[in-house]
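Sat 14:20. Reprocessing the chain from the morning session after the first attempt stalled halfway. Input below, unchanged.
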Amino acid sequence: MTGAQIHGVLVVDKPAGPTSHDIVDRVRRVFGERRVGHTGTLDPFATGVLVVCIGKATRLVRFLAEGEKVYEATIRLGFATTTDDLTGEALGPPVEVDVARPAIEAAARALTGTLDQVAPAFSAKRQGGKRLYEVARAGASVEPRTSRVHVASLEVRAVRGSEVDVVVRCSPGTYIRALARDMGAALGVGGHLTALRRVASSGFTLDEAVPADALEPSAIERLKPLASLLPGWPTVILSPREAEQVRHGRPVETGAPPPVDVSATPERVRLVDESNDLVGLGLREQNAGGQVLRADIVLG
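Finished this time. Tokens:
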């Protein structure tokens, strides 16, 4: 498909094997659109929700990536690996696992809340201008990199010998394989991630996903238009004159009194025209005369 301008989000159910970039390339070829990106990488062995932004939606990636992620995962207890998952080399011989479920659940509870999480040595975080996985593959020493993350819940669904099935609700930037590593360390037996499926990302779910093997021109019917994105944000409907001001980068003074729920702190809002087309994103501020809208992303 070429020639037509396509703007919106396509939720893809990524299979195990291809990289997230492979899926992006496939979408580029299918729809003939160069501006394609995603809101969060899945490792090649991982599956599930990959939120693919097309056309003007690529300008919204950082906002679409801000919401909670939900994963189904399997942790193998008994030994840790160099990558904290099944793709790495074992850091020692497997040990016999004889850990009761209550102990596993206690370890899971200890890994919830706000955490200073140490990123895996093989990760995309940077050290000296290089990705950590590049440093690690070169055999150089990797400095521990810590990030503040939030794990809303880490639910133990099943314990099958040395394997533990869990469901994780967490903030963006959380490494599930690091949780597997840390659970194994807390239990004194080591651990690593063996399966990972993202079932939701920032409100996008598997129920609306297109299987990767069904990525063809007809999948455009599943495209989420710009106007449907960020539905939880406050929305300001612009008059034709105000929409034109926004499109030209000028602030809009509405003169209307601010709504009662708007604080003195600027509030992020969606800006739509009278046809419900998303014109852009901006900040709503208060002044003595009413509201001022300042767009920082203009979509057209």
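The chain has three domains: 8-66+203-227, 69-201, 235-298.
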